[in-house]
Structure formats: structure tokens, C-alpha cells
Design goal:
The complex is a heterodimer of chains A (272) and B (292). Chain A is an alpha/beta fold and 272 residues long. Chain A has ten helices and five strands, in the order H-H-E-H-H-H-E-H-E-H-H-E-H-E-H. Chain A has a single domain, classed as Rossmann fold. The longest helix of chain A has 19 residues. Classes of the chains: A alpha/beta (272), B alpha/beta (292).
Chain lengths: 272, 292
């Protein structure tokens, strides 16, 4: 695994590093799910670069913001973000998916900086709701962020949690749906149609913000918008495999890791 | 037993950072807690997956949630949340199931909690606390609060009689409490509300000169303690209000299989699956359903 010498002065720079590291990790570990890592990469980069109050000195501090990855199969992107933040070392990162590593290929709370293990879908939001409820009950300032996949919105547990979050007016909770419109086998509309998702979520009592999930200005504005008396959910329209032309909108890259030649091509395309 | 539970909870709410979460159940039981601690009471609605997930979230911040519901709802309905969110993260959530075993017998199969031990004991970190009567519940509550991991608390339906007149000694996890001590080498062992059958004259154990004991607190990490507590007996009959498969008796067999080098006779007296197709109260179904 090589590290780009490019300085990180912006969330865009952050996203180049995140994509580059993630691509190398799944290549080395021969693991899956790079498509969903690349689709959420820009939102994650804005979160870790500009929104979450988390760095290597405070990632266990009680006042830190809480981030939960509910689409746990895309953990390579979070491990990469944690390395860019200095919480994980390069030596830790290269163990991803290897024997005896704590960096398993579904996100693990055994990894420093990770709040919660997921991998079965529909678990992150109820857990995050519990954290947000705690923060509200104890009048804490920290916020809770939960990243969900679009296919994951099929899970009934998420809709139970949405009801609860709205009923309890958890305005310290921000959810993001990485809407890349590709599930495990096919598109959303051909699998179990979610649309109109924004209207459904509005009717559940959420502050719904629809954005281009690759536009860093839109992403930051959505996070910065204050929701009053209701929880927030950002529907980030994204492209699965974003940034690598042969991966974009192809369900194959939910499963396949890039081989060495494909990796070189991909790293070149993203400008790593 | 339910009222003893609520009173114990009220008594510890001043000292421990707890919340009571109910799955829209608990009428005529939970009101005293709700009235005294309205800010510590949450009705999560009829939504068990979210209820268990949010309990894990609260526990991860240092709270001890008690999640209260009936029979299979806080276990099977949200089994993956119990497995992944609570047990895997080793969070101190107390899962409270009212109506353990066949205590809701005439409500039918949906309310027969006769596989709950099997499910819950398969999870690393999970402790089971199945008190034999209100005295054991009251006495064991401190141990439950002390344990820094998840617990499955199996209660009856309510109105259970005290079997112990009093209990002076501490209840140690994985160890027996003797109820009848004849200095015998033969033992009738129960967990949970089956204790009333273990001491019942209807079952003629007394005639055979058996000791009777209860083991209210057990779980995957307590097999050595269980074996140590039982090794002096040459014959043990294990009774439980649960299917034989995967229950308390199976756990006792595993404990002996792992640690014993002697030929202790262990017989399991649990429920035959035929009770799952029957209607009847707890006593009736236990009587006709035992599979010895």
C-alpha cells in the first residue's frame, strides 16, 4: 500500500486519499463492496474533514460526535478515513481482511475510532437513536450521525427507528442515505421501490434534504443546516463506483475487488 | 414476581443509572415506576427490533436499560439485535421477559416461551437469571446489577408463591441454592419457576429421598461453577419449564461433559414438543408435557 504525497487542504483532497486507500485495501484483501465505498466517499470525506469533532486526540472523549456506519460492508472507507485522521496507522490499515486483524471486512468496534459493529443491515439506526436519546436526556452537546444504504431502507427495523426518532424529536440525530440506486442484485425500483423516499420520510416527521452526494458544497450545507424540533435525514444521490469509470453503476463491483492492473487504472482515474 | 421486579427496580433507580423501556406492555405492573421516575421510563411501542437496538445504544453510553416485554417478544422477535447489538458488544442490557415457560399456557404457542433458554444461552456474554420465586428474584437483584454484561431475566406471569421462607446467603452465579437438604447423593435441580414442581408433593421426589435445589443464575461462562456446585451428587434430575432441546438440562449436561470424569447420572425432565400444539394452564401443560 502506498500513500499519496498530496497534502489534504480540503474535503475534496480528503476524498482522493479515502478512495485511493480503499481501492488498495480491497485489492490487497481480495474483498468486496468497493462500489458502495466509492459512492459514499464524498459524504464521508466531508463528515470526517469538516463536520465531526473527532481527531486522534479525542476519539474516545465523552464529548465527541458519534458516527455509526450502518452499511457496515463498506467499512474500508471508514478505516481509510480513520487513518487519514491519524487514528489508525498504516501498519494497522494494511492488515485489513487478513488473519488475526481486528479490521474485519464488516465494520468492527474492536477498531479504534469505531463506535459500533454492523454487517447485518437495519441495526445502525436503532443503535444511533439510542445514543441520540441519551445525548438529549443528559443535555449533551454532541451529535449522532448514521450512514445508511438505500437498499437497507427495506429493513423494517429502520422504519421502527424513524418512528421513534421523530416521536422523540431527536434533532441531534442526522441520518444519511447513500442513494446509489443499486442494491445487491439490481436497481431500487426493480427490487423494492422506495420512491418517493423524500415524501415518505417527510411524512414520518423528518427534516429531509435531497442533495447531490458528490458535491462537497451541497453536502456541507446539508450538514450545517439546523433542524429544529425534528431529526434530519439527508438523501445523498450518488453513483455506485463513483470516480472509476468501469465501476460506475455496475452491480459487479458490489462483489469484485480490482486486480492489480484494474487498481493501477483506478488510482490514476481518481488522481491519487 | 412481576411486582417484586418493579419494586426492586424502583429501589435501585436512585443508586444506578437505569432506564425502563417497555414494548407497549406491562399494564398494572410498571405504573409505580413510571409514576416515580417518568424521565426514566420509555414506551418504545410495538417495535421490538428498534427497542433492543436503542437499548444497546443507551447502554453504550453507560446507562443500564431494562427492556421489558412478554414471552418471545424481547428475545426471538429481535434475536439478531440481542445477538449483534447487545451480546456481541457485551453491553449491560437487562432483557426482561414476563411469562417465561408456559405461564401464559392458555394463550397459545405465540406466548409459549419454551425455547428462550436455548436462544439466549447460545450467546457469548449472556447471563441467564431465572428466579425460582420472588425471594430469589429479590435476593439476586444485586448480582444482576453488579454484572457488567447482558442478562436475560426470565419472570413468571405474576402471583407466584414464595418457596423459600427466607434466604440468608448470597446467590452466587452458577451455584445451587438448596431448598430441601436431606444430605442425599441424589438431587432434583431446577431453574426458574419449575422450582414449585421440584418441591411439589405431586411428583413424589420426597419419597425417593432427594435433595432439591435451584440454580437461578447461569450461562455460557459459568459451566465450571455449575459442575463444582453439583459434583458431589451421583444422580441429578434436572427439571425445567422449557423444551428439553437446548435448555437448562442440556447446559448441565455440557458442564459435566466438559469438566466431569465421573459417571454421574443426569436425567432431563423438560417439555415434549407436543405441548406446543396444546392449550392449558402452566401446571396442566407441565404435567402432561414432561418427557422423562
Amino acid at each position: 500500500m502506498f500513500l499519496s504525497s498530496k497534502k489534504i487542504n480540503s474535503s475534496e483532497d480528503f476524498s482522493v486519499h479515502l478512495r485511493g486507500l480503499s481501492l488498495q485495501m480491497v485489492n490487497a484483501a481480495n474483498s468486496s463492496h468497493i462500489g458502495g465505498v466509492l459512492s459514499m466517499a464524498d459524504v464521508i470525506s466531508v463528515l470526517y474533514h469538516s463536520v465531526l469533532n473527532i481527531d486522534k486526540s479525542n476519539y474516545e472523549h465523552p464529548d465527541r460526535d458519534r458516527f455509526i456506519l450502518s452499511k457496515g460492508h463498506c467499512c474500508a472507507g471508514i478505516y481509510a478515513a480513520l487513518m487519514i485522521k491519524g487514528i489508525l496507522s498504516r501498519e494497522q490499515l494494511i492488515t485489513y481482511g487478513k488473519n488475526d486483524s481486528s479490521l474485519m471486512a464488516h465494520i468492527s468496534h474492536k477498531v479504534p475510532g469505531v463506535e459500533f459493529s454492523t454487517g447485518a443491515l437495519g441495526h445502525g439506526l436503532p443503535f444511533g437513536v439510542g445514543k441520540a436519546l441519551f445525548s438529549k436526556m443528559h443535555k449533551c452537546d454532541w451529535k449522532t450521525f448514521v450512514m445508511l444504504s438505500d437498499g437497507e431502507m427495506d429493513e423494517g427495523s429502520n422504519w421502527e427507528a424513524l418512528l421513534f426518532a421523530s416521536h422523540h424529536k431527536l434533532e441531534n440525530l442526522t441520518c444519511i442515505v447513500d442513494f446509489n440506486n443499486l442494491q445487491s442484485l439490481d436497481t431500487i425500483e426493480k427490487t423494492l421501490n422506495l420512491e418517493p423516499l423524500d415524501k415518505k420520510l417527510e411524512s414520518f416527521g423528518f427534516d429531509v434534504i435531497l442533495i447531490n452526494g458528490h458535491d462537497h458544497n451541497q453536502i456541507l450545507q446539508a450538514f450545517n443546516k439546523k433542524s429544529v424540533g425534528k431529526p434530519k435525514i439527508i438523501i445523498a444521490k450518488t453513483v455506485k463506483g463513483k470516480g472509476v469509470d468501469y465501476m460506475e453503476n455496475e452491480v459487479l463491483w458490489h462483489y469484485k475487488p480490482p486486480n492489480d492492473e484494474e487498481l493501477r487504472n483506478a488510482l490514476k482515474q481518481i488522481g491519487y | 414476581m412481576r411486582n417484586t421486579f418493579i419494586n426492586s427496580l424502583i429501589n435501585c433507580a436512585d443508586k444506578t443509572d437505569i432506564v425502563l423501556i417497555v414494548g407497549d406492555l406491562g399494564f398494572s405492573v410498571i405504573e409505580p415506576f413510571q409514576k416515580k421516575f417518568p424521565d426514566l421510563f420509555i414506551n418504545a411501542g410495538v417495535a421490538e427490533q428498534n427497542m433492543m437496538g436503542l437499548a444497546a445504544g443507551l447502554a453504550s453510553e453507560g446507562v443500564r436499560p431494562f427492556v421489558y416485554s412478554i414471552a418471545n417478544f424481547p428475545t426471538f422477535r429481535c434475536a439478531e439485535q440481542v445477538r449483534n447489538d447487545v451480546a456481541y458488544h457485551n453491553l449491560p442490557v437487562v432483557i426482561v421477559s414476563v411469562g417465561g415457560g408456559l405461564s401464559y399456557g392458555n394463550m397459545g404457542y405465540s406466548h409459549h416461551a419454551v425455547q428462550d433458554f436455548s436462544l439466549m444461552r447460545s450467546m457469548p456474554n449472556m447471563r441467564i437469571f431465572a428466579p425460582g420465586d420472588p425471594v430469589e428474584l429479590n435476593k439476586g437483584f444485586d448480582k444482576l446489577i453488579e454484572y457488567d454484561g447482558p442478562t436475560y431475566l426470565r419472570l413468571g406471569r405474576g402471583g407466584e408463591d414464595n418457596i423459600h421462607s427466607s434466604l440468608n446467603s448470597t446467590i452466587y452465579p452458577g451455584t445451587i441454592i438448596k431448598v430441601v437438604d436431606k444430605q442425599s447423593s441424589r438431587l432434583v435441580l431446577s431453574t426458574g419457576a419449575s422450582l414449585k414442581y421440584a418441591v411439589s408433593e405431586n411428583y413424589a421426589f420426597f419419597e425417593k429421598d432427594y435433595d432439591v435445589a435451584s440454580m437461578p443464575i447461569w450461562g455460557m461462562d459459568l459451566k465450571q461453577e455449575a459442575y463444582n456446585s453439583l459434583k458431589l451428587y451421583s444422580e441429578i434430575i434436572v427439571i425445567e419449564d422449557h423444551l428439553v432441546d437446548g435448555g437448562f438440562g442440556s447446559w448441565i449436561l455440557e458442564s459435566f461433559n466438559q469438566f466431569s470424569e465421573n459417571d454421574t447420572s443426569i436425567k432431563l425432565l423438560g417439555l415434549d414438543p407436543k405441548v406446543t400444539n396444546m392449550v392449558g394452564d402452566q401446571d396442566y401443560l407441565n404435567k402432561v408435557g414432561w418427557s422423562l
